[in-house]
Design brief:
heterodimer; A: mainly alpha; 7 helices; B: 8 helices; globular
Chain lengths: 190, 170
């Protein structure tokens, strides 16, 4: 048996599948295109509203905090929240399909998507955790500066927060490592 | 240059059936496959507003289709089964008895199952090969070098010949 003939036969078999390659009506295309844009706008709006709720709640806490350092800390956390919402919106938020995707080869597009996801996870310290750090430090430091005898009691929640930050950082680094493995596998397969 | 709507009509007239086969090759279940096909059509129509003829309409169409499909597969990667490459398939013996008689329908089902197991780049190559796209155009669509395309097409032929050598006689 000639093995070379088998793939040719399979090509005919594949292309002979009874598929209907009909075009979608143009009205339907326009409607779906608009719906896609609206869906992206809606997701962005939800991100903004969630950010606004955090800002209002923390802003209120900042206003009512008993110590100046706590008020300053809460204010910095509000600023950090605004920054994180902006960053996610700019680099990681919901996006419609890029219009120029056909200008990019499949390989470049696929690698680009993986690299974007990896970089977002890898840099979580920079854009998510560190911006909150100054505010958190001031919030925990406020009562301790006013009442040094409370230092031991304040140490526990502070330690829990540090642990939480370390866990978030480690989980994101692990995620980035897994994506990097996919990129390496992609490079090896070329 | 034809306008966006005319280009879309032209692309679908020429490659509409291939797009439908591609969607089913990426997603097994009929309903999600239909959704994927519609997403591809919308993305193709949207993208054609920027078509300037720097590549062929075929290359453009396949790039959009594979990029949309691959990004959906990547998005669902957590629930997806482990995907393999052509090199691993070359080393793996066929799961069925090579002497088993296969009709066209079963061969097609097996071929689709095989495509579903492939990693994105190998899947793109396999599908473009099955559609009869020439090596130079496969390189344009995927971004692989000519040498790489040639090597991988050889691997595809070896894998297919090994796993389907009984179907040709049917």
């Amino acid at each position: 048996m000639n093995d070379e003939r088998v793939p040719d036969h399979l090509q005919r078999l594949w292309q002979g599948q009874p598929e209907q390659g009909r075009a979608m009506p143009l009205d339907e295309l326009r409607y779906r295109s608009r719906r896609l844009t609206r869906a992206v706008s809606r997701r962005n709006l939800i991100e903004y509203v969630a950010g606004a709720v955090v800002v209002v709640v923390l802003g209120r806490a900042a206003w009512k905090a008993p110590f100046l350092t706590m008020r300053l800390g809460s204010g910095l956390i509000v600023a950090a929240t605004i920054f994180v919402v902006y960053y996610l919106r700019r680099y990681g938020g919901a996006k419609a399909m890029p219009l120029d995707m056909a200008a990019t080869s499949c390989l470049a597009f696929h690698r680009g998507e993986l690299e974007r996801q990896r970089d977002l996870l890898r840099s979580v310290w920079k854009w998510y955790l560190l911006p909150f750090a100054p505010g958190m430090i001031l919030v925990y430091l406020g009562p301790v500066l006013a009442h040094p005898e409370l230092a031991a009691r304040a140490a526990w929640p502070a330690a829990a927060t540090v642990l939480l930050f370390v866990c978030i950082g480690a989980l994101n680094r692990y995620g980035a490592k897994r994506i990097q493995m996919k990129i390496d596998a992609l490079e090896r397969s070329l | 240059m034809a306008n966006q709507d005319e280009l879309y009509a032209e692309a679908v007239a020429a490659y509409g059936a291939a797009l439908a086969r591609l969607a089913r090759a990426y997603v097994t279940d009929p309903d999600p496959a239909r959704d994927l096909l519609q997403d591809i059509h919308v993305a193709l129509w949207q993208s054609l507003s920027r078509f300037e003829g720097r590549c062929s309409l075929r290359t453009w169409t396949y790039r959009v289709a594979h990029n949309v499909a691959t990004s959906q597969v990547v998005r669902r990667r957590a629930s997806a089964p482990t995907l393999v490459g052509l090199d691993e398939l070359e080393e793996t013996p066929a799961a069925i008895d090579a002497d088993e008689a296969l009709d066209a329908h079963r061969a097609l089902a097996r071929l689709q199952a095989l495509v579903h197991t492939l990693k994105p780049v190998d899947r793109q190559l396999m599908l473009l090969y099955l559609e009869g796209v020439d090596a130079a155009s496969i390189g344009e669509v995927t971004g692989l070098s000519a040498g790489n395309v040639a090597t991988k097409i050889h691997r595809i032929k070896v894998v297919l010949a090994r796993r389907f050598h009984d179907t040709e006689a049917r």
